[in-house]
Amino acid sequence: MAIPKIIRVQINVDAIEKKYLYKGKKGTYLNVALVNTPDSLYGQDYMATQDLPKEAREAGERGPILGNASALFLGDGKPAPKQEGNGHATGATAEDDKVKDLPF
């Protein structure tokens, strides 16, 4: 199986549990886990969840689902065409590259 060169992630920032954000040397950080979902009905390769600290996980807490992600497989420098049915590769569009109304 080919290794993705890019994983494009879409995050719903409203779903972030802000109590688990933490300060680092260069800013405020959020830990995100990508869960492989190759059989997804929605054509996405991964589900993005907020990764919680060990103590919270051991207490039974689960991080909220923040969004999803698609793997892009690059060969000759161009995105691979979208593969119907299994959702393993998507082609990038100019619309995908636009950043819209970020709340931060």
Task: Report what the structure shows.
The chain has 104 residues and is mostly beta strands. It has a domain at 6-74. The chain is 5% helix and 29% strand. It is built from one helix and six strands; from the N terminus they run βββββαβ. It has one helix at residues 54-58, and strands at residues 6-11, 22-24, 27-29, 32-36, 46-50, 65-72. A hairpin with a 2-residue loop joins strand 2 (22-24) and strand 3 (27-29). The longest helix is centred in the middle third of the chain and has 5 residues, at 54-58. It is globular, with a radius of gyration of 16 Å. The model is unreliable at 86-99 (pLDDT under 50).
Task: Furnish the topology, listing elements before pairings.
Elements: E1 6-11, E2 22-24, E3 27-29, E4 32-36, E5 46-50, H1 54-58, E6 65-72
Antiparallel strand pairs: 1-6, 2-3, 4-5, 5-6
How many whole angstroms does the radius of gyration measure?
16 Å
Provide the β-strand percentage band: 25-35%
Average of the residue pLDDT scores: 78
| Order of helical and strand elements | EEEEEHE
Report the strand count: 6
> How large is the count of helical segments?
1
- Percent of residues in helices comes to under 10%
Distance between the termini: 37 Å
Shape: globular
What structural category arises from helix and sheet content? mainly beta
Largest sheet: 4 strands, antiparallel
Low-confidence blocks of residues: 86-99
Spatial arrangement of strands, main beta sheet:
1-6-5-4
